[in-house]
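Run Tail protein through structure prediction, thanks.
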Amino acid sequence: MQRSYNTMVPARAGQLADAGYCDTHTLINEDPLTGQVDTITTDTNTNVHTYTFKCEGVTISYLSDASASVAEIAAGLAAAFNAEPLVNGLAEATYTATTTVFTARVAGVGWTLSDVDAKCTLVNTTANDESDPIGFGLAVVSDSANDGYGKLGKTANLAYKAVTLTPVLANTTVYNVGVTFRGTTYWADITSDADATAKEICDAMTPALNASLPAASVIVTDDDAAMTLTAEIAGEPFEITYDTALWTYAAVTVTEATDINRAFRGVSVRDSKQVTDATGVTQYAGGSAMGVLKKGRIVVDTPSVVTHGDAVYVTATGTFTPTAASTTPKLDSSVAAWVKSLSASLGVLQINARG
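Sure, done. The structure for Tail protein is below.
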């Protein structure tokens, strides 16, 4: 009896979808790092007292002399820490007045101070923050400071576009403003009176524009002298149309990160050689080189079945979805398009990210 077997490898997020054309590039996972800063403040100066604390379980101590000042104790604790080879590679200790300051030597490499002397106060001034790992099949956006680096396409790595419009005063005049959001332009117009002021114009135009705009798009506020238009979704761009004789435009926040289509560098490619964390998840570690598909087809996780022609949105955690929400910027169809579903939880994306 002849038998046949399915030898196909099950599709997984981050796998290239077919043997067709693809263009990948290598980026460094450069999610912003933050260097830790701790302080120990000497509250009480006691003569001939051993002041102690621990760093990563290693005891650091300083014996005050018979005429100790708080400044001397703060300096002594700093010197004792810097002289301890088991921990001085983590931070540099300095002092100022009553306080010993511990500053990370390498951003993203932290430590724990504990068992601080009762005559002192410990404060974590700046928490250590490592680069976020990036899983497979996730959106990657640029680090605008360096083309060779990329970050997870999450909300925190995008920005909210904001611009201002200041009215040029004109009496008995029609003022109009259009906001183009996801391909549709929403208009509002008001007519100034015979003794127009900036406050009157802004106070009339602001609610008129807000009423014309859809939810989760652009919010308009004013300070009686100018209007500020701000994206309600990080990474979601918008454009405005206005009469330059009646309005003065100024950019408040307009960067690559305010437009996900400009910031989008592609999708992280599955690589079994990458680090596996304690939960068994394999991903690109912070600071590591990662493969990113710039052009081609790739498998990604989906929350539901997708259909060719559905819109592509990026979630707050860098995954992809066909469903709009208040936190999901939309990728243009020229940048990303659904090809098909593989299941209720996997789909294929056609990617055409910038170079």
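The chain has three domains: 23-31+132-156+261-352, 37-126, 160-254.
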